[in-house]
Amino acid sequence: DSLVQRLWKGHASAGMLSPRLQRAMKNYMSSNKHHVFYNGHRKGTQSAKELLCQMKAQAQLKTVDGLEEPFSSLGWADFVPSHPLEQLNKQQQDRSGFKSCAVVTSAGAILRSRLGKEIDAHDAVLRFNAAPTEGYEHDVGSKTTIRIINSQILANPSYEFNTSSIYKNITLVAWDPAPYNVNLHKWYDSPDYNLFGPYIDHRKAHPDQPFYILHPSYVWRLWDVIQSNTQENIQPNPPSSGFIGILLMMALCEQVHVYEYIPSMRQSDLCHYHEHYYDAACTLGAYHPLLFEKILIQRINKGLESDLRRKGRATLPGFSTIDC
Ligand code: C5P
């Protein structure tokens, strides 16, 4: 069986990655750029329920609220949105919350999926970074409720963050990796890409648009969940935006459909559906512990294996529906 076929069945491992990707992984382990030092436990094989309960307890949504230094002295409490992200699902007119949500990854394999209508039928749709819908509606849909953006989108002018329509009229959630010990002073002084200035500028220009920065402790607690459930050492780098977005939606929604994260039968090396760039690392990971993330999501998938194959669709329960 191929690696992807084994992933569908829950038997994948990093030893099946190509030698190139295995080498890349090892190089990231030895550089350990974010000074990760994991001293938590490694759990034996947990049941899906135990894993979900660990995620629910350990992955409580947290954003930069301006109450901690250095942000408090810089007056950030007045700049961050007044409604917390955790209550985004209570802010529509009927306050009924998000029953069904879709997470749409940017994988090339979503091309020719014809999933657009199905995706748009969800109460809320989460997309990533610069992934467009225009021109791809048939396969990815056109509705966007939340967009997760990494700090490069804010820092690199080529993404046209301030002018592109894909970032307007939606909730924005940005993130950037701090050191693993979550020293906010060090983070503020040397983020991976400088998102802080562009964030404040955007908040001042568009105070009514919900726009949050994820707290770096949230990002690293998600990493801890992955490592604690993986026997091997995973890359000491933050989880991919995909994993962050999936767990964020599990905190906001009763049910989450994730599209083309666990690859479908359309799997290819095409990195993004909107670009002509081919690299298996986009789907299987080099910098991010992406394969381990996907193994974990397969373990909590409540949908059918045939939905993974045909649609690239995993079905996950929202945290509010799990009794722990
Ligand atoms: O590349 P980017 O981070 O913008 O893509 C969004 C997310 O979609 C990734 O973080 C990853 O989780 C997922 N993805 C994937 N396979 C791909 C491309 C993206 O699983 N080929």
Describe the structure.
- The chain has 324 residues and is an alpha/beta fold.
- It has a single domain, classed as sialyltransferase cstii, chain A (Alpha-Beta Complex), CATH 3.90.1480.20.
- It contains 13 helices and seven strands.
- It has a seven-stranded mixed β-sheet.
- The chain is globular.
- It starts with a helix and ends in a 7-residue tail after the last strand.
- The model has no long low-confidence stretch (mean pLDDT 96).
- The protein binds cytidine-5'-monophosphate.
- Cytidine-5'-monophosphate binds next to helix 10 and helix 11.
Question: What's the helix and strand layout?
Answer:
Blueprint: H1 3-9, H2 19-31, H3 48-58, E1 98-104, H4 116-120, E2 124-128, H5 137-140, E3 146-150, H6 151-155, E4 171-175, H7 184-189, H8 196-205, E5 211-213, H9 216-228, H10 241-252, E6 253-259, H11 281-284, H12 290-300, H13 305-311, E7 313-317
Parallel strand pairs: 1-2, 1-6, 2-3, 3-4, 4-5
Antiparallel strand pairs: 6-7
The structure holds cytidine-5'-monophosphate.
Residues 105-108, 128-129, 240-242, 261, 271-272, 282-283 line the site of cytidine-5'-monophosphate (C5P).
What is the correct CATH architecture? Alpha-Beta Complex
Q: Could you tell me the CATH topology label.
A: sialyltransferase cstii, chain A
Morphology call: globular
The CATH homologous superfamily is termed Glycosyl transferase family 29
The radius of gyration computed from the alpha-carbon positions, rounded to a whole number of angstroms, is 19 Å
Bound molecules: cytidine-5'-monophosphate
Helical element count?
13
- CATH level-1 class: Alpha Beta
Distance between the termini: 36 Å
Give the tally of structural domains: 1
Number of E strands: 7
* Strand-pairing-aware structural class: alpha/beta
Average pLDDT for all residues: 96
Fraction in beta strands: 5-15%
